[in-house]
Write a structure and sequence with these properties.
116 residues, alpha+beta, 4-stranded antiparallel sheet, 3-stranded antiparallel sheet, 9 strands, binds zinc ion
């Protein structure tokens, strides 16, 4: 396998295929406050990009796997850990639904406690 230079690059570089985003700054601004998933124009895979202060970019391969919930194969899966709950290995869509469910549960829990 050939080495792909995707760390501290002047443009966002896809860690999967090495595709260089010539308009990186547009993406960089959108994802300034958090690690954002970007889809490669070339190979269509998604990866995280993290803009650092000196305006170079680091990219990290998103985890591809099978969603525990909907069993979709070869999709981006994420783990989520927080005070309201946690989940492992869910696709983005199921993850968002689960997050909403956890939030609802958490709020219900607080409300029930107030209910004597
Ligand atoms: Zn690519
Ligand atoms: Zn899913």
């Amino acid at each position: 396998m050939s080495e792909i230079n995707h760390l501290f690059t002047n443009e966002i570089v896809c860690p999967f295929c090495g595709y260089e985003f010539v308009d990186s700054w547009e993406y960089g601004d959108n994802y300034e406050d958090e690690l954002g998933l970007i889809e490669c124009n070339e190979c269509g895979k998604q990866f995280y990009t993290n803009k650092d202060v000196s305006i170079t970019y680091c990219t990290y391969k998103a985890d591809y796997g099978t969603c525990k919930h909907c069993k979709k194969d070869n999709v981006v899966i994420q783990d989520y850990h927080s005070t309201i709950g946690r989940y492992d290995s869910l696709c983005i869509k199921c993850g968002n639904l689960e997050k909403q469910r956890l939030q609802k549960n958490y709020i219900n829990c607080i409300c029930n406690k107030k209910d004597y």
